[in-house]
Amino acid sequence: KRRYNITLLPGDGIGPEVISVAKNVLNLAASVEGIEFKFNEKLTGGAALDATGVPLPEETLAAAKQSDAVLLGAIGGYKWDKNEKHLKPETGLLQLREGLEVFANLRPTSVLPQLVDASTLKKEVAEGVNLMVVRELTGGIYFGKPRGFGTNENGEEIGFNTEVYAAYEIDRIARIAFETARKRSGKLCSVDKANVLEASMFWRKRVIAIAEEYPDVELSHMYVDNAAMQLIRNPKQFDTIVTNNIFGDILSDEASMITGSIGMLPSASLGASGPGLFEPIHGSAPDIAGQDKANPLATILSAAMLLKYGLGEVKAAERIELAVLDTLNRGFRTGDIYSAGNKLVGCKEIGEEVLKSV
Amino acid sequence: KRRYNITLLPGDGIGPEVISVAKNVLNLAASVEGIEFKFNEKLTGGAALDATGVPLPEETLAAAKQSDAVLLGAIGGYKWDKNEKHLKPETGLLQLREGLEVFANLRPTSVLPQLVDASTLKKEVAEGVNLMVVRELTGGIYFGKPRGFGTNENGEEIGFNTEVYAAYEIDRIARIAFETARKRSGKLCSVDKANVLEASMFWRKRVIAIAEEYPDVELSHMYVDNAAMQLIRNPKQFDTIVTNNIFGDILSDEASMITGSIGMLPSASLGASGPGLFEPIHGSAPDIAGQDKANPLATILSAAMLLKYGLGEVKAAERIELAVLDTLNRGFRTGDIYSAGNKLVGCKEIGEEVLKSV
Ligand SMILES: CC(C)[C@H](C(=O)O)[C@@H](O)C(=O)O
Ligand SMILES: CC(C)[C@H](C(=O)O)[C@@H](O)C(=O)O
């Protein structure tokens, strides 16, 4: 038997509900494929704040680092929105990404035939969309220094941040993106604002340099404002997109909404070595927390990414992916993806159905 | 007769074609309303680079400053894409914005009933969209210092920019946004990334402070990644959006694409005093330049904004707006907005039709 330690970080809002369902699915798929998991549940985000006073307790980071992969539910909520920076749930997530050095965030977006009607885009525009955003996750304006509050030379109060990228940071994310594109359609689009920002000019220069290692991948460049338009105009033109932390935050969320069903979308955050971090792209949805209404499929699909990208357990991953499709084909839907003619179920029940399909 | 000096900056690509048409429309609407224009045409962007070696000749900026309003076509093109920063056409545009101190960029997006089919969004999602993005235009990461290239403490090459806002910069754009919202539906959404960036936390703090002056306007806040999603999910939830320079660049382009017809969308850039800068939001479209295929309606509508916001000539502005609608109602379409059953015409011909409707 292959044995792995998995850190579970349920987090806030609907996090605990979707993690509990995903854990069962992981366990079953694993046992069928001869894998054994040891789960270690830890506090993070608002839950950690309330219990320990910090959004990422040392114990949580230590456990995560020692494990083989980390599965996270969701973090944040209105309750902590006005907290100071170091006491925000989001800060815990950023510390976790930094602590695990997971610099590459992979966000696949595909419009499933079963759910194409959920898109607010016209059917002919949405159907067949299948793209991957590779977002740099541990650099740029999220982490750049100097940052903070102060006064300028005229004594005016200011708030400021630094967008900064070093060559090695761009090179390593570019390589992940080229590898990703190579395994997909062989087309990579690098998104920047090189007509205005030096950080983007440097980004583009390094991406072009790394491209020499990947002569089989077709590289293009697009300005971020144009990319935001093209994702609506014709999302099918994209296969793999690579971009910096903040543009990736914006564009990957925009891209995900093309599906109309962000309750379906997983993500993987990977480093050079060490455990990866896997989480649904949706938020903690405090308005429906604890009501058994959440859609756990994004977390279940994140568990599949954990198996595939985190542990190299491709067969178990595919088993879960197929189980999710089978559940959809059998007509089960949570409220967020419900349409007439299907069966409306809650978080737990759709989880049971996925288990049947595993 | 009321007399005004207008600086015309045709710029690059399709710029000269659309400006020439818009000039005729301006002239006719003016003469009907008892206005007289003196036009002064100057070089900018790539055209200025080729002729003078710089993207914004001093003479152009001086003329613009002395005039009552500036109408710009478009700037940029593949030809200059690899130029160094100070020799990029875009740099000329940024220098112009900075030189005129036009800190408030107003970008209206509305889906016209005549063109609702041009949207890639479903009809029920797109129809009735009518929103205004108020983008800060002379601050933030576009202009912040320090910026450039260098090495970090490990001797690694880096590229960097500074996102910085001073209180007065936020306060003045917030006031414009509140005034704008007040004249519209009374709803203002401020977009930031205050869960991560200090510059955004400061932005939010100042916007909330200024809100006290506008108790009749309903203020909400949204993170930029969520805003990028919500614009696709349900654009009708928005009326007026205010945001910083870079988020405004991205979101206003995204919002404009909701219409599917960016050849229709104008913009106004205003300062505290001095001439405003008016331009279509589309680019220079080098691929169709000189072929009489461009859609001049965005520039014509920018001329209407010039009359309204720049000169306070509301009647002449409305005359132009109605003429554009009348031309559409009569079935005239350029290629970018063509649909079966209408009359496909070129840039000049649709301009002639607008003149008939003025
Ligand atoms: C919660 C927030 C800090 C985070 C981010 O901005 O990275 C989220 O939006 C995401 O994309 O995972
Ligand atoms: C051309 C470019 C510098 C400009 C910007 O980023 O402001 C353009 O995209 C715009 O939005 O007017």
UniProtKB/TrEMBL annotation, chains A, B:
SMART domains: Iso_dh. The keyword Metal-binding applies. Its cofactor is Mg(2+); Mn(2+). Residues 5-354 form the Isopropylmalate dehydrogenase-like domain. Binds 1 Mg(2+) or Mn(2+) ion per subunit. Its EC number is 1.1.1.85. Pathway: Amino-acid biosynthesis; L-leucine biosynthesis; L-leucine from 3-methyl-2-oxobutanoate: step 3/4. The keyword Amino-acid biosynthesis applies. Keywords: Amino-acid biosynthesis, Branched-chain amino acid biosynthesis, Leucine biosynthesis, Magnesium, Metal-binding, NAD, Oxidoreductase. It is an enzyme of class 1 (oxidoreductase). InterPro entries: IsoCit/isopropylmalate_DH_CS, IsoPropMal-DH-like_dom, Isopropylmalate_DH. It catalyses: (2R,3S)-3-isopropylmalate + NAD(+) = 4-methyl-2-oxopentanoate + CO2 + NADH. Belongs to the isocitrate and isopropylmalate dehydrogenases family. Homodimer. HAMAP family: LeuB_type1. Catalyzes the oxidation of 3-carboxy-2-hydroxy-4-methylpentanoate (3-isopropylmalate) to 3-carboxy-4-methyl-2-oxopentanoate. The product decarboxylates to 4-methyl-2 oxopentanoate. This is 3-isopropylmalate dehydrogenase.
